Amino acid sequence: MNGRIVTFGELLLRFSKKAHRRFTQGEEILGNFGGSEANVAISLATLGNEVAYVTRLPKSQIGLAAKMMLMEYGLDVRHVMMDGQRMGAYYFEGAAALRNSSVTYDRAESAFFQLKPGMIDWHEVLRGAAVFHTSGIAAALSEDAAEATFEALRVADEMGITISFDINHRKNLWKYPGAKPIETLSRMLSYADVMFGDVIEFEFLMQHPKIPFTAVTPDYEMDLEPYKEWFEDIHRRFPRCRKWLMGMRNQVNASHHLLTALLWSEGKLYSTRIYDIQDMVDPMGVGDAFAAGQIHAMLAYPGDDQRILDYALAASTLKYTFNGDFNLATDDEIQALMAGLYQ
Fold it and tell me: For the segment 169-211, what is each residue's pLDDT rounded down to a tens digit?
């Protein structure tokens, strides 16, 4: 695959229970790693891309274990900093029947939380990169982490690198004094060439009532005209961004979701099929799998926006079949799922 890809964000410890148990039940807790930008990086590496991941980890056995895990998936970790004191974490309770999943964060004062501008030589990190991917999560953690992200975006912009940005609005993280999520995310988005978000994040950022996606079967017919008007409105506000991707999901119950997506690209709106996902394994990281699928397909099929969207959604759908945050679907598996569209 042509084009080195750099992703930037916080790697977390993920804690969860088996068999949909609550944290108040039993003694055994499962631990693994996850985090939006790392999820994107690992998915892209699984698809055969050259990927560098940039983060800051604690100088400890936990930090070393995290770095070794990244190396196992084939990531370039030369620019992973190992000088913090603690690792951020999140606690995930899976959904069951009519009970929704829940996430509790423990990220305050983590190594990445304390990241400051000037700590990373972005000119060195981004040398030879085709795509730089990050999200709004770092900006939600602390003012310093936000400024470090802006530093990366400015350098990527100066170097003429395609910038991929995921809104990733996490309302429970914006706690530091003076935090202004809409203003900060809008400033970040002004650098983006490609943007991702689900319909709720689009609603939040644009302060525009969301258009309901109420599919309960895959033959649901969408009225695309309101979406086209919405995307054109967004593009007028952020004229630099060439591609806008919106994911939509209707949750029938804890194990039954219907998933689709839209792509607005240079004045044209593309839609794709609706996947009916039942008996899913793990929904965490579905949006990150979508972003990774889009970036991969953008490099593999330049100019073929319909195929790019189809590929991204198929990659996202397959993430439901894997435990943990990472989408380990191969290109062959994604192509097989798409085969019905391209026979």
Answer: 998 899 999 999 999 999 999 999 999 999 999 999 998 898 9
Report pLDDT digits (tens) over 34-62: 999 999 999 999 999 999 999 999 999 99
Question: What does the alpha-carbon distance between residue 149 and residue 158 come to, in Å, rounded to a whole number?
Answer: 14
SS3 at position 201: helix
Candidates 256, 284, 275, 270; CA nearest to 314 is 275
Calpha distance 250→258 (Å, rounded): 5
DSSP 8-state symbol, 218: T
* DSSP 8-state symbol, 19: T
Question: Helix, strand, or coil here: 33?
Answer: strand
CA angle 93, 295, 172 (to 5 degrees): 35
Name residue, tokens 């009532």.
209
Three-class SS of residue 275? strand
Return contacts of 222-230, CB within 8 angstroms, 24+ apart. Answer: 222/260, 222/271, 224/262, 224/269, 224/271, 227/262, 227/269, 228/264, 228/269, 230/202, 230/206
Token pair recorded at residue 221 = 């017919």
**Backbone CA torsion sign across 52, 55, 60, 62:** negative
State the Cα–Cα distance between residues 213 and 261, nearest whole angstrom: 10
Report residue 215 as tokens: 């599919």
